[in-house]
Please model this.
Amino acid sequence: MNKKSIIILRVFIILALAGLIAWIFYFLYQIGSEESYSQNSQSGLKVYQNPEYGFEISYPENLIATTTFQSYYHLNSDWRADAFPETSGKGIVSIPVYRIENRGKNGEFVSYPMYFDAELRIGASSDPKDLEACLSAYNETATGTEIIKGITFSKFIIQNAGMMQYVQGVSYRTIHNNVCFALEQLKTGSSYRDVPNPNDIPDSVLDSYYNQIPSIIKTFEFE
Model:
């Protein structure tokens, strides 16, 4: 093998090793940055961890967390309820506590409620507009503060209704590492009622699901 061939071979080996090292680092980064779900068998809770935003939260093991936000008549899929349009916030995780649809094939009423959803949503935004409004009431109704795992959250009322549909809830918000976090206790559904049906679900039962959400919120902590 001549000198030129040896140089070419060495360059090829160096490039191949560099590529392999880069791939290994990328693979390790992906593992470290991906959200994870684990289960604590002793407490009966699942733990959702998000390294990208540096937090974790626990919730009952019978619930299933999702990274998508559903849209409803008075509640869209934005990173938080009543979010400013065209900002760069991100919906991170939703933990539905109870969802039901009581509509027929053509959307007709079957039993009460036609639909209902009680869930916890967590979203975040580093958009300057969202940060400015994060802890301010603006058009919202402030309802004090709450300390969760040493972090002070401002609380705001979520409420809208019309066309026999509604959304209600509480938005817990704080700024951490220059990011606005919103933890939102939400219930949305149809208030339409027809002839009483044996399958109707009492509002007290629906509210019992909604009232489970604060205990989940209280497990939230930054890592």
